[in-house]
Amino acid sequence: MDAINAMGLTDEPEEWGGAVVGEAPRTYEYEPGEMLAATEQTVKDLLEEGFLPAQIAVLSIRGAGSSELFARDASTQVAGYRCKRRIGFDEDGNTVYADGDILLETVNQLKGQAADPVV
Description:
It is built from four helices and five strands, in the order H-H-E-H-E-E-E-E-H. It is an alpha/beta fold. Strands 1, 2, 3, 4 and 5 form a five-stranded mixed beta sheet that branches.
């Protein structure tokens, strides 16, 4: 909430509403064309802080069809770990994921899921 209030994203200041308060969001800036390298470094930083790969979700605000993250081959790694990413649907309409350690997802598709750190 502190970050939202500091950036003036709402007309009135917001207050914490949940019983659990996490870390303040961190902001990482990068130059155009450096998004993949910045994402890689951010994930490495989280791993060094003690997060396990299975706890980390890397999100794209863009859809899978227009995201630099999803444009990479499905076997591409982030910080040395394979990405668990959506590769299609089964006959019942359930999402099928490629085997991987770090979740790679779009913001829209992450709804209803959770991760400790989200990049």
